[in-house]
Amino acid sequence: MKEYIKSSVGQPINFHSGGQFITTENWTHMKRNIDIFVVIINLNETLYIEQDEKRYTVLPGEILFLVPGQLHVGFNPSPIGTSYYWLHFTFPNNYSLLTRKMMDSEVTSMRSNLLPINNHSCSTVLLPIHTKPREVERIHILCKQLFDVAKANYYNTYNAHYLATSLLIEISEQTIYHYKTVSLDTAAERKVEMIKEWIRIHVFKKISVTMIAEEFQYNSDYLSRIFKQATGYNIQEYIHRMKISKAKELLMNTNVTVKGIAITLGLNDEKYFMRLFKKYEQMTPTEFRKAYFRMPMNNV
């Protein structure tokens, strides 16, 4: 069974319409088959929607994607006062539907992409058909911003498209962060994936093996051993590589000084940062910037 949607948002999605729906009577979703995506973000009560002959019971705080070309219809009534956010959109590019096994492969590939070249290296979103996000409040905030902008009389109409895209990215990021692949057979392997994600999220902070061990309630030596077995890196080396990866992005794409980059990455000793960078890149940060940095210039 295909449970996930995959597409690229290298270009913003096409936002068509959206808002908040509140029932004034007992309500059952109409039967229809449309050619655009629908996102339902349930706020209260319970929704009962069948899609492609599968029945979904959508609880408060849960999200349901309705896919173009698939018949959907309510199969039970919801009470007066039922409310949810909704939006209609299309992707600018092709999309595909993934099985759980295919999703495992996509997430594993993303998580193993240790050293992205730059911020634009991944434009993929992975969206579950039915999900309960851990941080649904963030999604509610984005919805409110989107609907506020959509009804404003802006001259530039792309703002709603970009905000809707941000909403899908937020759902995708929460999905990937909390996703547990079937291929991770042991508790230790699953823990290592969680640690890798935690390091990625906190890469701009001062982090240590001891801090990670305390966060995940593991003995430092044991944690280092299972991490090395799973990744080929010890934890400290993995942290260093992640920080150097971010440093390279900043050197290529910003004017921030080498000292400023070191501080941004939680490495307050500039000389230590320079030694670390040279260890992994065989050149200094300044040499790297001269080799790869390109500043757009206006001709006078």
Automatic annotation (TrEMBL):
Stored Gene3D superfamilies: Homeodomain-like
Pfam families xref list: HTH_18
PROSITE patterns: HTH_ARAC_FAMILY_1 (PS00041), HTH_ARAC_FAMILY_2 (PS01124)
Name of this protein: ADA regulatory protein
InterPro entries the UniProt entry points to: Homeodomain-like_sf, HTH-like, HTH_AraC, HTH_AraC-typ_CS
UniProt KW Ribonucleoprotein keyword: no
Keywords annotated in UniProt: DNA-binding, Transcription, Transcription regulation
Annotated GO MF terms: DNA-binding transcription factor activity; sequence-specific DNA binding
Domain named HTH araC/xylS-type: residues: 193-291
